[in-house]
Specification:
With 112 residues, the chain is mostly helical. It has a two-stranded antiparallel sheet. Helices cover 62% and strands 5% of the residues. Helix 1 crosses helix 2.
């Protein structure tokens, strides 16, 4: 689970770099493969990162297209701002669930 868009971007970038490094060691001589700038995730990096992070659901081109909001052929951290809302929504759900469980436990204690 990612803490927010910056965390997601960093983790995808890290996973892609690690996977790319492993590929380079197996194929081309060092430095011959082009790397995307640090502030953008290329399509290839997203595919590598998803695989490295254990994604097995397929549909990588669709995932990339959805995240490439600016349609510039790469993902910038600004393209992931939607994730802030999703992280907050998930935190609210978790807090509500914890609160409901706590209230249920208190109610059960009072019923005894």
């Amino acid at each position: 689970q990612f803490e927010g868009p910056r965390d997601m971007f960093r983790e995808l970038k890290r996973a892609a770099a690690a996977a790319s490094e492993m590929q380079e060691q197996r194929s081309a001589p060092p430095g011959q493969q082009m790397r995307a700038p640090q502030d953008i995730l290329s399509e290839q990096e997203v595919y590598l990162a998803l695989d490295a992070l254990g994604w097995t659901g397929g549909g990588e081109p669709t995932i990339f297209a959805i995240m490439d909001l600016s349609c510039e052929g790469g993902i910038y951290s600004r393209d992931l701002k939607w994730m802030d809302v999703e992280v907050r929504r998930n935190q609210m759900k978790e807090n509500a669930s914890k609160h409901a469980m706590k209230m249920s436990a208190q109610k059960a204690r009072h019923m005894k």
